[in-house]
Each structure stands twice: as structure tokens, then as C-alpha cells.
Amino acid sequence: MPQHFLKCSRARTLSIRQVARMDEAAARDLFQKLRWPDRDGEPECPHCGHGRCYTIRTRNTFKCASCRRGFSVTSGTIFHSHKLKLRDYLLVIALFMNAVKGVSALQISRDVDISYKAAFVLLHKLREAVDDARADMKVRGEVEIDGAYFGGHRRPANQGREGARPAPKSEKRCILAAVSRTGGTVTAVVSSENGKDVLEFVRRRVGQADTVYADEHPSYDALHARFEMKRINHRWSYSENGANTNGAESFFSRMRRGEIGQYHRPSGRYLDRYAAEMAYRSDRRRVDNGAVVYEVTEMALAHPMSRTWKGYWQKRAPGHHATAA
Ligand SMILES: [Zn+2]
Q: Are 197 and 123 found together in one domain?
């Protein structure tokens, strides 16, 4: 069996310049290798799973030898019925993942010379693919858990003016993060840092933990029944006998820099996806950029067409503009 593509040495580095110079045939070849990584890019029918397919070179499509149906390298994935060149998708992914603190749709639309709408939807589809690919991931070992509030932008016009309509209820949401000291970050977005949501989050995303570190917020009290716990009192000490949540805090500070620097005020609606994106970035921060670009492309090609983002701009009422970057 051929070696999995991501394990090859040539998958390790990839510069923006290399991607920009890539021709469409090379991009298609790469997409095939990432869509069917265990078959060295040899297509497998997405309709019936049959392994023998004919290549229709003139149209860059395939035809299944068993069910006789046609498909392309992007059929059924988030790139389904793509409008951009495959090379440009790769370029977007490379720019997206090269920006350690995240990148805005506006920036991508300028850099790749695609419409803002195309960039906006594409970035959201990529976040969705990354988030869903990691949905079953659990953190283990020495685990730090903490919560922090994000989002909640109010339009200045709604603030404090006599006779103006009252300010809308704050859209601030709490992000819970569990960070393993040996690697791995998982997140959830909840209305507030509370015991019930903490417990539910831990059930879903924390596996076998040797020790759980948390601050003295009462939301984490119930975890004593399940784990060996170490609690930190921030007023007294940041690290006493290894009892600290520095890993979780540095995740939140990266998230905060991303929020301020690139996403400005990520709307509450998509906050879970932004958090998942930042968790992924955090977990891959010491991995070669080429490997990360290929991995995200592979996740995107393994992800089914997005219901949320299919025809997104067509579905929106006229005059209603998205505010998220
Ligand atoms: Zn088939």
C-alpha cells in the first residue's frame, strides 16, 4: 500500500510562492493525492465506493467502472461545483494557515483577487471542515481547563444616547477550553462559565485525564468527583507545585490577539468555529506549514458539501450584510 501522502517528506514545506507558481494540472494532481491519500491519488467512486474508475481527460472527470456515474476530484466536498481554480483554493488555504493569528476574508479577497463573498464563504467552509474533522477528538493526561468571554460587540449608535433604542442584550459568550499539556486543545462555546455546561463539555471532550487543573471558579467543583484535581487561586499564585493553567491562558491570549487583530469582533453565531480554528492553529503551531496546508486541504476534501454555506449569499435577504470579518 502506498505511503500516506502527509507522511512523505515532500509534504512538509510549501511556500506561498510555490503555490502561486503551480499550474492547474499540478494542483489537480495534489488534490487527488489529498482526496485519496491512501491510494496515491487513484480515484475511488464517491457514489458506490468502487475502486476502479476511468479517467475522462478532456473534462478532468472520472467515471466509475461499476455504477457508471461520473465525478470529479471535488464532487461532494466543500469545493463541489467550484468556481475558482484549484490552485487558487490552495492559495487561500496557504494564506489562511500561514497567518498564525488568523486572517480576514477581506485580506484574502485582496491577496488572491477573488470577491469578498467568495473569500468569506470559503474561510467559513474551511473552519467548518477543520472543526468537524476534530469533533471526536478528546484531550488526555494532564489537562488544564478554563473559560473566557468573547464577542459581544454593540453598535456604537445603540449606546447611551438619550431616546435611542436600548442597547441589545450582550452577545458575549464564554469559550471553554481544555488544553492537554502533552498536546491537544478542545473548545466549546456556552452562554456562561457554569457547572452544568462545564460538566457536559468535559464529558464530551476530556478523555482519560490524570490530573485536571482549574482555577477556583465554582463551575469546576463538580469535576472533583471524576478527576484528580489541582485548583489555582489567581489572587495568590500563578504556579504553585505545577498547579497552573498557563496552557489554557496562552490559548485564550492567542484567541484574543486573533479576535482583535484579524476578526475584529467575531459574531456570536460563528464563535464556536473561530474557537475551533484557533484551537487547531494552537495545536499545529510547531508543525511545518506545508504539512498544515496539506492537512487542511485533506480535511476540506474529506468534508461533505456544507449545508450552511451552500448558496449563502443567495439565501440572504437583500440589504442584510454579514458583519463578521
Ligand atoms: Zn460507483
A: no
From ligand 1's centre to the CA of 230, what distance in Å? 54
Query: How far apart, in Å, do the first and last CA atoms of the chain sit?
Result: 43
Tell me how far apart the alpha carbons of residues 241 and 295 are, in angstroms, rounded to a whole number: 37
Clarify whether residues 143 and 129 are in a common domain: no
Range(s) of the domain holding residue 109: 5-133
Dmax of the chain from CA atoms? 72
**pTM, to two decimals:** 0.85
Please give the chain's pLDDT, 325 residues, in tens: 566 665 666 556 788 888 989 999 999 999 999 999 999 999 999 999 999 999 998 889 999 999 999 999 999 999 987 789 999 999 999 999 988 778 889 999 999 999 999 999 999 999 999 999 999 999 999 999 999 998 765 555 544 545 545 545 567 889 999 999 999 999 999 999 999 999 999 999 999 888 999 999 999 999 999 999 999 877 665 556 677 888 999 999 988 887 665 565 656 678 889 999 999 999 998 888 888 999 999 999 999 887 777 777 777 655 444 444 4
Distance from the alpha carbon of residue 75 to the mean position of ligand 1, in angstroms:
13
Output the CA 71–ligand 1 centroid distance in Å. Answer: 9
99 and 48 within one domain: yes
The answer as to whether 314 is a domain residue is: no
Q: Reduce the DSSP state of residue 282 to 3 states and report it.
A: helix
Total tally of structural domains belonging to the chain: 2
Question: Ligand 1 centre from 52 Cα, in Å?
Answer: 8
The last residue of a domain, from among 104, 133, 162: 133
Give the helix/strand (H/E) hosting 2. none
CA of 253 relative to ligand 1 center, distance in Å = 48
**Residue carrying the nine cell digits 474551511:** 126
CA of 54 to the centre of ligand 1 (A): 11
Q: What is the dihedral of CA 220, 265, 280, 17, to 10 degrees?
A: -160
Residues 49 and 144 in one domain: no
> Which residues lie near ion ligand 1 (Cβ < 5 Å)?
45, 47-48, 50, 64, 66-67
Nearest to 270 by CA among 171, 181, 142, 182: 171
Report how far ligand 1's centroid is from the alpha carbon of 53 (Å).
8
Q: Is residue 210 part of a domain?
A: yes
Distance 63 CA to ligand 1 centre (A): 8
